[in-house]
Automatic annotation (TrEMBL):
Protein name: DNA mismatch repair protein MutS
CDD domains, alphabetized: ABC_MutS1
UniProt keyword annotations, A-Z: ATP-binding, DNA damage, DNA repair, DNA-binding, Nucleotide-binding
PROSITE patterns: DNA_MISMATCH_REPAIR_2 (PS00486)
Gene Ontology annotations for the cellular component aspect, listed alphabetically: cytosol
Annotated organism of origin: Anabaenopsis elenkinii CCIBt3563
């Protein structure tokens, strides 16, 4: 029976023969003991999928079975549930729970793991089971469930009127930050930046504990929260000022929150306290260590709204939503996953502080100038594993022995790294010069204790080296000597019985046995006790053999247990050093990002931009960092940019606003984005694609690029465009960079042209933001003759008799034609249509000189 068939059958109304799918419809007193316990547990977690350990499986029952079978395409079956009848069931093998759970969590479900906590063979009555783990998208720790290249954020929000608090943590790395603000639009934008896997929201909803999957709505969810995330609806109590504050003080063992910088920020405190409470509630058996809470202010960073991040394709492309072809793709030369995550964070949160930017630039420069240092560092960094997450798993008790070996290997690279950077001067390299002694000692201890290549399982022995623990060695010796005794037994018994083919064997049911061919069974001595008869062989045991076997099995259990205890102690020691390891990990990650950026700058021939506090933007021979890498070397045509120069006798040479015209596909959008990306790269401290640059720090970059229907919100292309334009006009300042592509295209020509004109005029005269305005409306070129801070630029083409050659060069002046009709001709429009189009254009141009009626407009 397929999953689909079984599901159809089970979703039919319940009758006496169909399996039960609804716990509420089941007569609990008629259920057998285990199912009664299951239903009790399910009552506690009504909104999660409950995976219940039964023998070698994790099973789901009732309605959860239907959901799991549907989502994982597993066969839905049923089991006898006692007098009440059969119960719907879907199960997964216990060793594969991580794989299946990952899929469920990725689909936005919360999963509760209820495991057996006593040995089934020793249980009296029902095996004892407890909830050992609750997994939600934002509270994952397991290696296989996390993406190495990005943080997995859990966020918590508190909203009070137009004010908000937002805390976020990555519990796999320990990062924990909080902020507050006073415009709900900023909260939306900050959530869009973080892209949290899960957002915790305090509500008074009746269905507390439920997890809304992306796209699911609830009247209890504030409107400003974007629908694309998972939301956990929680009680408001832990988010009250008193509770939240107390929770933070307790968590970080503090008397006051002053040191955390959020004492005076009640909403930041409430969201952070609520988040800690939630994490503690989710992590039953594995307490999570978070780094000390840090407070930040969103206005301390360059603000990029969601549209701008999207349009500039910072982490993924607009068209396909993929990493390949994004800015991050083109810049990432990091060697560690910690560095990869840090680069992503930097790109989504560029700096405003010139000192901070210069410190990063200094480091890049030093690494560019010293090629051996850079190469050696990169080589060494490649040998450093994900220290942040390994430490997280150690501290929460989920790390295995392989994790600790990887951690020790990585820690032992740190002194080598320190040695390599011993003579460096820049701040980010100096931070690596001193490795706390305790880490070297820890690495040594781990290496000394754990075998080089340990097994994944922790309770089956083989983890700890000899010579570490006398008791362990003693037990090992006993087991080995007993095993030797058994090995000798074969030889001795062969000699004794004269049966040369006698063998000693082992199986799970009988343990050790002596195997003799049936033809020789009459030669066995009296002390052999027959245990099993097979086609060609007889199997025997002897009292001596059984005695040894009992000794071996007990000693081996003891041995494994002792090894496990030694391992757990080591793991705890690592956890205790969590903060020290994570501090140095952060330094390694930053150095890795900068080393990668230095490598990139050398490979691609980037320059160090001079960062200034004024508004000037000068880029000589700038290039688009992504398009350049996608074209064969030397094919990209560089272009310069001069904007916003304040002290100049010829303001027209350094305009605030550039009207950029040029035919389709000539390279206007590419140029526009290139300017935005160079500014953004400069503000993360990177060198930039160009031969020389001087850049005033921007407070925000705005883009309005291309026309895309927002079908999800039912808005037309034109309305989306107008909303975005309104947002820019309402928020841009003289320190912003505004990149506008084709404003006014989505409506009638004259409406569009009029809006485009008015928008450009407003930006140039009222806001004075540095702006590039790409347009097909050549009429806008008139603005330059009226406003002193507007200039015209065009992307040039060469006209040949039967084709247009794109030169991709941006030069002063306005294009007087758009070549749209030529493009139509090349595309095969009939000649008569082309001729008529030219006639109509001539007529329109005659009557549409805006400049002529300009006095009337003013
Ligand atoms: N400076 C450049 N050097 C080399 N190739 C370029 C350059 N600029 C753009 N191109 C190439 O030209 C193509 C078209 O560029 P782009 O999309 O920017 O044109 P456009 O003028 O904005 O067109 P439209 O007006 O139709 O949107 C790009 O895909 C790119 O490959």
């Amino acid at each position: 029976m397929t999953a689909a068939e079984s599901q159809t059958q089970l979703t039919e109304p319940h009758n006496s023969t169909a399996p039960l799918v609804d716990t509420k419809l089941a007569d609990r007193s008629q259920l057998s003991k285990m199912y009664q316990h299951y239903v009790e547990m399910k009552d506690k977690y009504p909104h999660a999928l409950l995976l219940y350990r039964v023998g070698d499986f994790f099973e789901t029952f009732f309605q959860d079975a239907v959901t799991v079978s549907r989502e994982l395409e597993l066969v839905l079956t049923s089991k006898h549930g006692g007098e009440a009848g059969r119960v719907a069931m879907t199960g997964v093998p216990h060793h594969a729970w991580e794989r299946y759970t990952t899929q469920l969590v990725e689909k936005g479900y919360a999963v509760v793991i209820c495991d057996q906590v006593e040995d089934a063979s020793e249980a009296v009555g029902l095996v004892k089971r407890e909830v050992t783990r609750i997994l939600t998208p934002g509270t994952l720790l397991e290696e296989g469930m996390l993406k190495t290249s990005r943080n997995n954020y859990l966020a918590a929000v508190v909203i009070a009127g137009n004010h908000w608090g937002l805390a976020h943590a990555d519990i796999s790395t320990g990062e924990f930050l909080t902020t507050q603000g006073s415009d709900l639009e900023h909260l939306t934008q900050e959530l869009m930046r973080l892209q949290p896997a899960e957002v915790v929201v305090p509500t008074n909803a009746p269905d507390l504990g439920s997890l809304l999957r992306p796209g699911e709505t609830s009247p209890h969810l504030p409107q400003c929260l974007p629908p694309s995330f998972c939301y956990s609806l929680r009680s408001q109590t832990p988010f009250t000022q008193g509770e939240a504050r107390a929770k933070l003080l307790e968590k970080f063992n503090l008397r006051s929150l002053e040191g955390l910088g959020c004492d005076h920020l009640p909403l930041a405190v409430r969201s952070a306290g609520g988040l800690v409470e939630y994490v503690e509630d989710m992590q039953k058996a594995n307490p999570v260590t978070l780094q000390k809470l840090r407070t930040y202010t969103i206005t301390d960073y360059l603000i990029l709204d969601h549209q701008t991040r999207r349009n500039l394709e910072i982490t993924q492309t607009v068209r396909d939503g993929i990493f390949h072809g994004s800015l991050l793709w083109s810049l990432d030369r990091t060697s560690t996953s910690m560095g990869g995550r840090a680069l992503r964070r930097w790109l989504l949160q560029p700096l405003l502080d010139i000192k901070g930017i210069r410190a990063r630039q200094d480091t890049i420069q030093e690494l560019m100038e010293d090629t051996p240092l850079r190469q050696n560092m990169r080589q060494l960094l490649r040998q450093i594993y994900d220290l942040e997450r390994l430490t997280g798993r150690a501290a929460s008790g989920t790390a295995n022995a392989k994790d600790l070996v990887a951690l020790a290997d990585s820690l032992s690279r740190l002194p080598q790294l320190a040695h390599l950077v011993a003579d460096t001067q820049s701040p980010f390299l100096k931070a690596l010069q001193k490795v706390p002694d305790v880490l070297g000692e820890l690495a040594q201890k781990l290496h000394a204790h754990i075998v080089e290549s340990p097994p994944i399982h922790l309770k089956e022995g083989g983890l700890i080296r000899p010579g570490i623990n006398p008791q362990l060695d003693e037990r090992k010796a006993t087991v080995e000597s007993d095993q030797q005794w058994i090995a000798n037994l074969e030889v001795e018994e062969r000699a004794k019985t004269g049966i040369p083919t006698l063998k000693v064997g082992f199986n799970k049911t009988f343990g050790y046995y002596l195997s003799v061919p049936r033809s020789k069974s009459d030669q066995v001595p009296d002390n052999y006790i027959r245990k099993q008869t097979l086609t060609n062989e007889e199997r025997y045991i002897t009292p001596d053999l059984k005695e040894r076997e009992a000794r071996i099995l007990t000693a081996r259990d003891d041995l494994n247990q002792l090894e496990y205890e030694i391992f757990v102690e080591l793991r705890q020691e690592v956890g205790e050093q969590g903060e020290v390891i994570r501090n140095i990990s952060r330094a390694v990650a930053a150095a890795d990002v900068l080393c990668g950026l230095a490598e990139l700058a050398v490979q691609q021939g980037y320059c160090r931009p001079e960062m200034i506090s004024g508004r000037e933007m000068m880029i000589v021979d700038g290039r688009h960092p992504v398009v350049e890498q996608s074209l064969p070397a030397g094919f990209f045509v560089p272009n310069s940019t001069h904007l916003g120069r304040e002290q100049t006798k010829h303001p027209e040479e350094k305009p605030d606003l550039v009207i950029l015209t040029g035919p389709n596909a000539s390279g206007k959008s590419c140029y526009l984005r290139q300017v935005g990306l160079i500014q953004l790269m400069a503000q993360i401290g990177s060198f930039v694609p160009g031969t020389w640059a001087k850049l005033g720090v921007c407070d925000r970059i705005f883009t309005r690029v291309g026309a895309v229907d927002d079908l999800a919100t039912g808005q037309s292309t034109f309305m989306v465009e107008m909303n975005e334009t309104a947002n820019i006009l309402n928020h841009a300042t003289a320190r912003s960079l505004v990149l506008l592509d084709e404003i006014g295209r989505g409506t009638a020509t004259f409406d569009g042209l009029s809006i485009a004109w008015a928008v450009a005029e407003y930006i140039a005269t009222e806001i004075r933001a540095r702006t590039i305005f790409a347009t097909h409306y050549h009429e806008l070129n008139e603005l330059a003759s009226i406003l002193p801070n507007v200039a015209n630029y065009q992307v040039t083409v060469k006209e040949l008799p039967d084709q247009i050659v794109f030169l991709h060069q941006v030069q002063p002046g306005g294009a007087d034609k758009s070549y749209g009709i030529e493009a139509g001709r090349l595309a095969g429009l009939p000649d008569v249509v082309i001729q008529r189009a030219k006639q109509v254009m001539g007529q329109i141009e005659k009557h549409s000189k805006i400049a002529m009626g300009l006095q009337n407009m003013e």
